Amino acid sequence: xxxxxxxxxxxxxxxxxxxxxxxxxxxxxxxxxxxxxxxxxxxxxxxxxxxxxxxxxxxxxxxxxxxxxxxxxxxxxxxxxxxxxxxxxxxxxxxxxxxxxxxxxxxxxxxxxxxxxxxxxxxxxxxxxxxxxxxxxxxxxxxxxxxxxxxxxxxxxxxxxxxxxxxxxxxxxxxxxxxxxxxxxxxxxxxxxxxxxxxxxxxxxxxxxxxxxxxxxxxxxxxxxxxxxxxxxxxxxxxxxxxxxxxxxxxxxxxxxxxxxxxxxxxxxxxxxxxxxxxxxxxxxxxxxxxxxxxxxxxxxxxxxxxxxxxxxxxx
Length: 316
Hints:
Layout: H1 2-7, H2 9-49, H3 55-105, H4 111-132, H5 136-146, H6 154-168, H7 173-181, H8 183-188, H9 193-207, H10 211-221, H11 226-237, H12 251-254, H13 259-274, H14 282-293, H15 305-309
């Protein structure tokens, strides 16, 4: 059971984090709609307390109240549906881990059942390895063939892929939307992702010689980060005084296009932290542990994953 405790933590933690996030979103939506209903109710009470109130005015207010109640009902149903979906994923993963416990503790269970479970776990590890390395089509195909899609985190990595692609194209909207969706959790993690994105937006405005727009951008966004990042803000603001092809350090590095690659890697690591995923895949960790345990004079081997999955080519 030691390997289960050490390797399967993300298996349960990730769907739990997703469920927790959906619960908080649903709660916020319901609270917001309830506040709208309370405001409408107060408006009706105020109208009724006035003299010479007209029936059509009250009818209109009641109609608005009914619409708000319908919106509340719809959002509550949508939220509950999403929470149930996430709960079912948690249950499926728990059942999957329980299969291993029963196979180990129950003497009536054949060795073949345990080996089948281990094969399924290996498939999950390889799927995660593919996802982390950008082989999305291969990961999806393997997950579907093995019937383990609900036991993997494909949805998380597909969302991550979209954000990484947008950053690779020097676009920031999707990453900022991701930051907004996970704002409270990122704040707890003391993430600098949004700040670094805002810095890069400023740099890009200076790069295309829109310096007044860059100043407006700084006034709008940098004020939120002054307490923690004032030295960085001061340094990047100095770019207004330099040409794009400056050779003076550190301003030359701020104009370097490789900063986008740094942002992609930072986003990837922040996404792992958000869902409490390790920086290394479970497959890589298990492989390294296995190689370390082998008594062999050769410290490294070449692993051809194409022979394992029996199909090619592997497409990103």
